Amino acid sequence: MPRFHFDIHEDSRLIPDEDGQNFANVEVARKEAMLTGASIAREAFLAGSADHVVVDVREDEHTPCLKISITLEVEELADD
Amino acid sequence: MPSDTIRAALIRRLRVSSAITDEDIKEIEALPISVRQYPAEMAVVRDGERATDCCLIVDGFCARSKTIASGKRQILSLHIPGEIPDLMSLFLHVMDHDLSTLTPATLGFISHDNLQKLHRRSPEVAEMFWRDTLTDAAMFREWIVNVGQRPAPARLAHVMIELRERLRLIGRLDGDSFEMPLTQEQIGEALGITAVHANRVIKQVRQDGIVEFNRGRVTVLDERKFQELADFDGRYLHQSPTL
């Protein structure tokens, strides 16, 4: 089973994933990355600690094979 | 294994939380218990199985969990020595979740038949075990609140403080540190987040100087911040007969 690492960027802060996890294939890893990105983004957006979360998925020491990017956009609308 | 070692943590816990009498202790000491060793991460009783005995944790850590169709697992509760995590199987005959070990464990099995006889002979002991299962339900309520409402770092801190307060009762604290033998994946399963998110939360609480988690041990760095983050009120553990 291939081993995938999920490096997290919250704005400019990088949290590398040294350990990694085994997944059957890249499709399963993609779902896990989405779940991770959405869950970290939810926390970061609510806490106001970041408004851009990126999950870079890589197999072992290879360059990333997948990038998931989530951005918060809040627009205040004029009341007229 | 000597009989008093098998029952030591159970009796210690009941003494503090349930005002157990010497007579009740004699009844529990007379209860036949068959001891078996289990490796780590091994099922003790599975969802859908019919249980014929209840399992007392003599040593080691266990967890109860439920796995959904997609294969994702939710850890429902953590269990430590002196607890009987499947006591409800005495009345609810078919398991509706899994009980498994987290670490290598020494487990003592008490037959339903013997427990029923004890309950009929001693209503005081029966009440004590009833209270035990009610406290169990109170912990589940707290875990629903935890997973449903608290941000992830607070969830982690809450689960940690709960475990610490239960370990305190059986004398298993070691200064500012205590055992929490879970992998990052298992912590994720207890908090309802992925292993990678759990890893991120563990790093954050360490960077914030609150608590350190390393190789299955928790070390508190700042008690005040830890309490504040966890939003912990231990009443739901009912660790005194007056609560």
Structure description:
The complex is a heterodimer of chains A (80) and B (243). Chain A is α+β, with helices and mostly antiparallel strands and 80 residues long. Chain A is 28% helix and 34% strand. Chain A has one domain. Chain A contains one helix and five strands; from the N terminus they run E-E-E-H-E-E. In chain A, strands 1, 2, 3, 4 and 5 form a five-stranded antiparallel β-sheet that branches. The longest helix of chain A is centred in the middle third of the chain and has 22 residues, at 26-47. By secondary structure, chain B is α+β, with helices and mostly antiparallel strands. Chain B folds into two domains: 3-143, Jelly Rolls; 150-237, Jelly Rolls (Sandwich), CATH 2.60.120.10. Chain B is 44% helix and 21% strand. Chain B contains eight helices and ten strands. Chain B has a four-stranded antiparallel β-sheet. A three-stranded antiparallel β-sheet of chain B has the order 1-7-3. A three-stranded antiparallel β-sheet of chain B has the order 8-10-9. The longest helix of chain B has 27 residues, at 123-149. The chains are: A alpha+beta (80), B alpha+beta (243). At the A-B interface, helix 1 of A face helix 7 of B.
